[in-house]
Design brief:
Aconitase/3IPM_dehydase_swvl, about 160 residues, Aconitase, domain 4, globular, EC 4.2.1.33, seven-stranded mixed beta sheet
């Protein structure tokens, strides 16, 4: 499993309240959530994000409220992967459960710049900055988590397992 795209970069402690503000939690429609993704932090996010882009952030990404709406809005906006120094644990699990690829790599999260082009090999945990040529070793997903993400989330993974 791989991802490749342009970087949209944020800092530390990006919480679920700025990923998808609480005023939009009355819907579970992914397209509607995507239309408001990051708007309290980056009002131009929905205008500049392209399918396949990669979000990069610092420490504690996804902290705050335990809402699946946050990774759903990111995934539905077209982001193919989130790279961060660290993730809040509940966000990490919610991302896997809805099929949003994420990867922790402190060095990459610090070095990669906004608008860089990156490629991620999830099987190996490799992140390559195509703009600078530098390669980083992130933490690869265990095989069962890769299977969940490849199935587009836990629900589909279970459905596939039962059929």
């Amino acid at each position: 499993m791989n991802a490749k795209g342009k970087v949209i970069k944020y800092g530390n402690n990006v919480d679920t309240d700025v990923i998808i503000p609480a005023r939009y939690l009355n819907t579970s429609d992914p397209a509607e959530l995507a239309s408001h993704c990051m708007e309290d932090l980056d009002e131009k996010f929905t205008q500049r994000v392209q399918k396949g882009d990669v979000m990069v952030a610092g420490k504690n990404f996804g902290c705050g409220s335990s809402r699946e709406h946050a990774p759903i809005s990111i995934k539905a906006s077209g982001i193919s992967c989130v790279i961060a120094e660290t993730f809040a644990r509940i966000f990490y699990r919610n991302a896997v459960n809805i099929g949003l690829p994420i990867i922790e790599c402190s060095e990459a999260a610090k070095d990669i710049k906004d608008n860089d082009q990156v490629e991620i090999d999830f099987d190996k945990g490799l992140i390559k900055n195509l703009t600078t040529g530098k390669t980083y070793q992130g933490q690869p997903f265990p095989e069962f988590m890769q299977e969940i993400i490849s199935a587009d989330g836990l629900i589909q993974y279970i459905k596939n397992s039962l059929s």
